[in-house]
Fold this sequence. Notes:
Layout: H1 5-16, H2 22-34, H3 39-45, H4 51-63
Amino acid sequence: MTIPTTYSRLLRFLQEDLSISAASIAVALRHREHDPGPLPMILWQYGLVTLEQLDQIYDWLEQA
């Protein structure tokens, strides 16, 4: 299975621009399997990103 380009770019943005650890992203992805929803919201709901970072993520997604 290939990861869509936008999704892989989002993961890179989260790690490189927002300094979110790979471990935090992995936690969110595991929770996403049981609680489907947008990855940015899951990151925020579990306290893995701040509200400001959540805004930055959605701004980035609008431009992607």
